[in-house]
Specification:
There is one protein chain. The protein has 84 residues and is mainly beta. It contains one helix and six strands, in the order αββββββ.
């Protein structure tokens, strides 16, 4: 159960904690919500679903693109263009 997880270190989070968070870019565009996370030899990826048109985009889960994760506000802020 979740209650048995050890506390996440400062600046870290459990994948399950970001599911459902809104994803917003620097321009304030709402890119959708975190629908899942993926991991492969290329790294870890946020799977962001735009419910409006059913599109899914993958954003690398690295500091270069993921600027902050605010679990209280349920928002992930990214440096990612809306057209990518």
């Amino acid at each position: 159960p979740r209650s048995e997880f050890p506390p996440a270190a400062q600046g870290e989070f459990y994948w399950s904690d970001v599911l459902g968070c809104r994803v917003v870019n620097r321009g304030g565009d709402d890119l959708g919500e975190v629908a899942g996370l993926r991991e492969n030899t290329g790294g870890q990826w946020l799977e962001v679903s735009d419910g409006a048109n059913g599109s899914v985009r993958l954003i690398p889960l690295v500091e270069k693109f993921v600027e902050s994760v605010d679990l209280r506000q349920r928002v992930v802020r990214v440096d990612w263009n809306n057209e990518w």
